[in-house]
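ingest -> validate -> predict -> emit
validate: passed (alphabet ok, no gaps, 275 aa)
predict: started
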Amino acid sequence: MNGLTTNSAQGSNAARVTQAIAKASSRTGVDFNYLMSQAHVESALNPTARARTSSATGLYQFIDQSWLSIVNDHGAKYGMDWASNAIERTANGRYVVSDPALRQQILDLRNHPETASIMAAELATDNRAYLEERIGRPAEAVDLYLAHFLGAGGAAKFLTTMAQAPDASGAALFPAAARANASVFFDRQGNARSLTDIRSSFAQKLAAGGQAAGSAASDMAMDGTQTVMPADYVRIAQERLTMNQTLSEKQPYPEFAPRAETARLAYLMLATLGR
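emit:
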């Protein structure tokens, strides 16, 4: 593949990611700049990014359990009832799917920019409500990012502890997270970072991510890059529209609205091609 073709493909992919995030922001009311910054920090806007030390995958680096949880809670709203209905929560709070193949198909949707973006926006909305009830103040962007990183309960624990003991060790409070994310919880000399330092570092990352994402968007606008779906993506989408009844104009995400088993399979193919 020559450089021109590679640049074109990268530009098309970046434009698709930006469009997906814009749609998610419009649909949920979650700030576009926050979602762009978060995606840049998490994956450098790479829809197929994978972490080396955990199951974190995709544009927003959802781990397996977090993804199953958010799809269980919000998937049906976007036509993914076939996925949410397959997810069950055990007595110990874990989310499971009895069919291994279907479980993997649901997890693979993390690599689909449109799905990942709307689920990240829904999670941010849930986390904001949860945090503000517990910390007694409006949640800032960095607080939402902490909630994405640690879970809403973890972020509430982090923020309420920091309010009382700002110099407390983050690693001592979250040993499992520290083992998986050493650079977040320890400095280069191996010293444990304080809660205040960790939150400040996250705020700086979000600010830098926002600047980088804004620069990338400007570059795309200047070079005339347009959002162009892969040919197979468009072809299958058209086949689905023929296969299903005419979709309502009020449906903001027609690609998320399977109508039958064949439509579900087509949706899964779309997610795979979206990688």
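Residues 1-9, 220-263, 271-275 have pLDDT under 50 and may be disordered.
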